[in-house]
Amino acid sequence: MNATTTNHPHLAGFAGETAAPTDYIRYAQNSLLTELPGVVFGLVTLAYIICSLLALA
Prior knowledge:
By secondary structure, the protein is mainly α. Helices cover 63% and strands 0% of the residues.
């Protein structure tokens, strides 16, 4: 099995990519919304641990 790879940089618009800038923004917003419940859960857990430790002091 012979495979060759080329490491040529591809620039948007020159490599035949037709994705509009709004597609990237939509993807970023969707990624943020996907991660948001985990971030909120982590912050609530951290606040609970800190408040519990302060209550013991």
